[in-house]
Specification:
The structure is a homodimer of 267-residue chains. In chain A, helix 2 (36-43) packs across helix 3 and helix 5 runs parallel beside helix 6. The longest helix of chain A has 18 residues, at 13-30. The model of chain A is unreliable at 1-14 and 76-87 (pLDDT under 50). The first copy, chain A, has two domains: 13-72, Arc Repressor Mutant, subunit A (Orthogonal Bundle), CATH 1.10.10; 82-265, 3-Layer(aba) Sandwich (Rossmann fold), CATH 3.40.50. With 267 residues, chain A is an alpha/beta fold. The first copy, chain A, has a seven-stranded parallel β-sheet with strand order 6-5-4-9-12-14-15, with helices on both faces. Chain A is elongated and about 65 Å long. The N and C termini of chain A lie far apart (51 Å). Chain A has nine helices and 15 strands. At the A-B interface, helix 1, strand 3, helix 5, helix 6 and strand 6 of A face helix 1, strand 3, helix 4, helix 5 and helix 6 of B. Strand 6 of chain A pairs antiparallel with strand 7 of chain B, so a sheet runs across the interface. The structure holds a DNA duplex (30 and 30 nucleotides).
DNA sequence: CATGGAACGAGGGAAATCCCACAAAATGCA
DNA sequence: TGCATTTTGTGGGATTTCCCTCGTTCCATG
């Protein structure tokens, strides 16, 4: 009613749908939960229509349905990549939980953006371990903000909405001005010739984190093994340890072992 | 809930209640929404018990009830402040919409954290005006990320979960290394002797934004008039214009007029 | 002008939730 | 041990939501 904006005409149905759904998503940025009846009244449409909106938005992973309404999708919407696999999600949770156990009280930890590292951040907050985290990811920041024991330092940079994280030279410069005891990074691929990332801006951030951290943990699920991405982040020997759901095999396993990379398997 | 828990014995139902509620809150750190039936089954209690848990936790502001379940409390929960007034919310929306109209294509805008400036950010994203925004607020960042036309630059700093924004010397230094055509800041009070902010860390951020912006807009609703906060942000003459819902009156009006502060009233 | 499709609303039976009051069980204290 | 208090479970009626289908409206296209 207040947002039909620039034109005083009657609301055109063609715009109505997209507009309405945009509004729903914007509203969910401000509140964790919206009700069906409430939105139906606000937009002057039937509850059935809102229900259909929820249905579609939910399929795209943009919100979470619940009885009588919907809540915001877990921070950081991993977009249309194949990341939305429920199987993988469970594996990422296991990996994140295991990685969170590596954090010791007093640690300074750099955490990369990504769905797996976000899981780690959630479990670190859950454990309430006293530490300092430096990150370029907004979802990681907010997840860790839940815990009063964690001090979170946000890096500056250009905002990338698709990943809900910042990148660029500001980010890299900032990270290089700091030092950390350990870092946790994700990747799109891990092969015998190194760690790969598809989004170029993020490769530089990961490299920066690796270069200023004493220990480093690569968080990847086993589906990433023996694949490649666009930009190489690091050689195998630059990684301190790999936290994953299934131990690698064959040549990859041999390389990692030879280069002294520890494998931590999350159960 | 005032019972002494320091005697570790077998699982006593006495602990059950507090323990259960703790678990509920921990679960909500990992997921945005939990259902009643689901939790009842998980804890082996009746749904009525879960309902009572929700009721009490909700009263303490630790979660948000919804039909059939509950969701996590809003990230930056400005808790007991009177901020949650629905009336004020509409006024803030009007102010935000009006302020968004001030942004011209090509502008570089600094936007402060706060509920009113967040509204402005939402409407800027809604207008799809091509501009660059520098902010210390995560909600502002994400709201603007909705628009492909807006380039968002995030300032670094210590994360404040209560406001979902960063502050500190890193933030201030970063802002001072930049220049902007205009800035939009909120405040907790506006009186004849200046602009006030209650949270000290944020006053420094607002001052930094003011000092590097050619034009400045103060976004405050009329309930903030003739009140004070803990820290003074600026003198009246340091503000370029005030965007508000109702024109100030009396001495405040006279001072602003004499100091050349423009008043923009949002309809 | 006619046709097709998308979006939306209406209706109704099934299921889930809510709310209230009261009873049962567990616990603390004397 | 016995009693008061707290916590939890149960039951049922009112309400809300769900989910499915069908008819209407509006727009685009030929």
């Amino acid at each position: 009613m207040q947002l039909s904006a620039h034109r005083g005409e009657t609301t055109r149905p063609r715009l109505a749908k997209a507009e309405r759904r945009e509004q729903i998503l914007l509203e969910l940025r401000l509140r964790p939960h919206v009700g069906i009846a409430e939105l139906a009244a606000r937009f002057g449409v039937s509850s059935e229509t809102i229900r259909r909106d929820f249905e579609e938005l939910s399929q795209h992973g943009l919100l979470c349905r619940s009885h009588g309404g919907a809540s915001a999708a877990p921070q950081g919407r991993y977009p249309d990549f194949d990341e939305r696999n429920q199987n993988r999600l469970e594996e990422r949770e296991r990996i994140g939980r295991r990685a969170a156990e590596l954090v010791q009280p007093g640690d300074v930890v750099m955490i990369d953006s990504g769905s797996t590292t976000l899981q780690a951040a959630r479990f670190i907050a859950h454990r309430d371990v006293s530490c300092t985290v430096i990150t370029n990811s907004l979802p990681v920041t907010m997840a860790l903000g839940q815990s009063a024991a964690v001090r979170v330092i946000v890096a500056p940079g250009d905002y990338d909405p698709a990943e809900a994280a910042v990148t660029g030279t500001e980010t890299v410069d900032f990270l290089k001005r700091h030092r950390a005891g350990r870092c946790m990074i994700g990747a799109t691929a891990l092969a015998v010739d190194g760690v790969f990332e598809t989004v170029r801006g993020f490769a530089a951030v990961k490299r920066a984190m690796l270069s200023v951290s004493r220990e480093s943990h690569l968080l990847v699920d086993s589906a990433k093994f023996d694949r490649h991405g666009m930009a190489r982040v690091a050689a195998p020997e630059e990684i301190g340890s790999v936290v994953t759901d299934r131990a690698p095999a064959g040549a990859l396993s041999a390389i990692l072992q030879r280069r002294g990379v520890a494998i931590t398997r999350a159960t």
